[in-house]
């Protein structure tokens, strides 16, 4: 793998404070000089102070990841939800009606600043409320498909991830062990996901973990729809579950108690929780490898691409292979 020191300068290294504020001012704001970098790796996100007004959040998109059409579909999805009083943080619409802007070589979007804290996923009342909000989101998500954004599927998250890592020669001593377990996993995933059909795919958040929610006024506010795509509804539910099997079943019960007040839930989707979790594990390692030329990644993930990491990763994949053979979580009456 090419190290950041040896690689050509990454595009995000051009994001100086001057460029960031010039971008914001290019659409009519007057910055007051205050600038705060927020946690974000795929893109770059900053809080920018505005003269005599509330600060705004500016998000600079990673070059070449999404097309303009794909970004605008995300924005339209968020705006539709906001119009239905769903608790999302939509992009700011400029005076000319646009939400996606350009400055020099970057595309960027502004968002209002919203405060809050992460939801307590061990709080069953919080989970029930999350279930209600996600049910309403999924009703809207099922109204029509994304035309430009992709599906979460075995090829993009599974086969492509494995192929990239094997071709990158990151772990020569463990390559055969990795190949053996991933061959087995991909075959098992193909079997487990064969029951999916087109009607099971709706527009979802796609990365619905606690870090992408702000809890305020007894309600979650969903942020960062950058990974929004077509996927089964359960993709937005399983990441809310944690702990032992009995704990996960109790958590799922409370989520669905809220969910079913607004939307139906097909129990067939429970069989896809572990396959979707497996795809996320495979994709995450490939994502780190693909982004390693971005200077933010070696700093944020110093444990990646070490012999210990790959050994533990292969062990986790073996454990996940066993999990695929377990019965799905049980719905509590």
The percentage helix is 40-55%
Instruction: Give the uncertain stretches in residue-range form.
Output: 1-7
- Spatially, the strands of the biggest sheet line up as 1-2-3-5-4
What does the average pLDDT come to?
A: 94
Oligomer: single chain
How many structural domains can be distinguished in the coordinates? 2
What is the overall silhouette?
globular
Beginning-to-end CA distance, first to last residue: 51 Å
- What's the alpha carbon Rg, rounded to whole Å? 21 Å
CATH superfamily of the largest domain: Transferase(Phosphotransferase) domain 1
CATH class of the largest domain: Mainly Alpha
The total count of helices amounts to 10
Largest sheet: 5 strands, antiparallel
Coarse structural class: alpha+beta
| CATH T-level topology of the largest domain | Transferase(Phosphotransferase), domain 1
Helix-strand pattern: HEEEHEEHHHEEEEHHHHH
Provide the β-strand percentage band: 5-15%
Which CATH architecture of the largest domain is right?
Orthogonal Bundle
Strands, total number: 9
């Amino acid at each position: 793998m090419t190290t950041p020191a040896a690689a050509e300068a990454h595009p995000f290294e051009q994001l100086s404070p001057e460029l960031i504020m010039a971008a914001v001012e290019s659409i009519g704001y007057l910055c007051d000089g205050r600038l705060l970098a927020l946690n974000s790796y795929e893109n770059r996100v900053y809080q920018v102070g505005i003269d005599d007004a509330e600060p705004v959040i500016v998000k600079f998109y990673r070059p070449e990841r999404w097309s303009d059409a794909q970004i605008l579909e995300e924005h339209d999805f968020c705006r539709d939800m906001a119009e239905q009083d769903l608790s999302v943080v939509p992009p700011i619409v400029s005076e000319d009606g646009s939400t996606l802007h350009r400055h020099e070589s970057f595309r960027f979007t502004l968002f209002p600043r919203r405060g809050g804290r992460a939801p307590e996923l061990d709080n069953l009342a919080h989970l029930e409320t999350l279930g209600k909000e996600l049910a309403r989101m999924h009703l809207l998500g099922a109204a029509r498909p994304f035309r430009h954004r992709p599906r979460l599927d075995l090829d993009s998250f599974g086969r492509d991830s494995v192929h990239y890592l094997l071709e990158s020669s990151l772990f020569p001593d463990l390559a055969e062990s990795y190949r053996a377990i991933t061959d087995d996993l991909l075959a098992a995933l193909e079997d487990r996901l064969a029951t999916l059909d087109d009607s099971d795919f709706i527009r979802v958040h796609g990365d619905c973990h606690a870090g992408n929610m702000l809890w305020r006024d007894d309600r979650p506010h969903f942020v960062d729809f950058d990974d929004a795509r077509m996927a089964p509804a359960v993709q937005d539910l399983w990441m809310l579950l944690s702990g032992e099997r009995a704990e996960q079943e109790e958590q799922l019960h409370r989520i669905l108690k809220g969910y079913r007040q607004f939307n139906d839930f097909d129990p067939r989707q429970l069989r896809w929780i572990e396959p979707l979790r497996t795809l996320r594990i495979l994709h995450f390692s490939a994502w780190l490898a693909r982004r390693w030329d971005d200077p933010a990644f070696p700093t944020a993930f110093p444990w990646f691409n070490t012999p210990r990491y790959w050994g533990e990763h292969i062990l986790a994949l073996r454990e996940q292979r066993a999990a695929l053979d377990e019965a799905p979580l049980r719905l509590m009456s």
